[in-house]
Write a structure and sequence with these properties.
By secondary structure, this protein is of the alpha/beta class. It has one domain: Alpha-Beta Complex (Maf protein). The chain has 6 helices and 7 strands. Strands 1, 2, 3, 4, 5, 6 and 7 form a 7-stranded mixed beta sheet that branches. A hairpin with a 4-residue loop joins strand 5 (99-110) and strand 6 (115-127). The longest helix is centred in the N-terminal third of the chain and has 17 residues, at 41-57. The relative contact order is 0.18. The chain binds thymidine-5'-triphosphate (TTP). Thymidine-5'-triphosphate (TTP) binds at residues 8-10, 12, 28, 33, 52, 68-70, 72, 81, 102, 146-149, 151-154, 157, 171-173. Thymidine-5'-triphosphate (TTP) is lined by residues 8-10, 12, 28, 33, 52, 68-70, 72, 81, 102, 146-149, 151-154, 157, 171-173. Its cofactor is a divalent metal cation. The active site is at residue 69. It holds the Pfam family Maf.
Length: 191
Amino acid sequence: MKEIILASSSPRRSALLEQIGLNFRVIVCDLEEHTPPGLQPFEVVERLAARKAMFVADRLTEGIVIGADTVVVWRGQLLGKPSCEQDAVEMLKRLQGSAHEVFTGVALVDAGNNKVEVSHEKTRVIFRPLDEEEIRRYVSTGEPSDKAGSYGAQGIGAIFIERIEGSYTNIVGLPMSKLSLMLKKFGYDIL
Ligand SMILES: Cc1cn([C@H]2C[C@H](O)[C@@H](COP(=O)(O)OP(=O)(O)OP(=O)(O)O)O2)c(=O)[nH]c1=O
């Protein structure tokens, strides 16, 4: 079996891979997350996921490298990780009482033969209405600080979610069903 390498510092992505009993190691790449303006959300997350995976694969001679990137899209606006607490409050004010989409791009790179596969998944999330006090209390827990859209569906943020259409794990940072099919194409079976 080839070694699996996760090119991500996200503890949620590691937790999802641990959940399915995958043996892997983490190599973190500290890349600037910049893309040219005017790209569609799926293009942004696919490009960033590919860049992260290729950066790590370039430094290896073998192994399958997984890269990923997650953004929240609200009425056409891309919301990444908040720059400060006020930014998080502003994002949550937009998301409350409405629907948004979470896009996660996933890239697999086989470091041995430079085979690359990139894809993305989209999940629709509906938030119940929130008042400003609730938003401020949530932001002061610190949970939003490292998360796209300023919430964690796997954490306290769960209490804001009325409904989800699509993959839950995609919201948390890795669409596991899609990932398993991509790994299969690289000759790696989970079961
Ligand atoms: C919407 C949402 C996002 N997130 C997280 C997943 C990602 O870790 C993060 C989005 O930022 P990313 O830039 O995708 O990932 P990262 O900076 O955490 O890690 P790396 O670049 O090293 O791969 O937001 C949640 O944990 N829960 C959620 O509900």
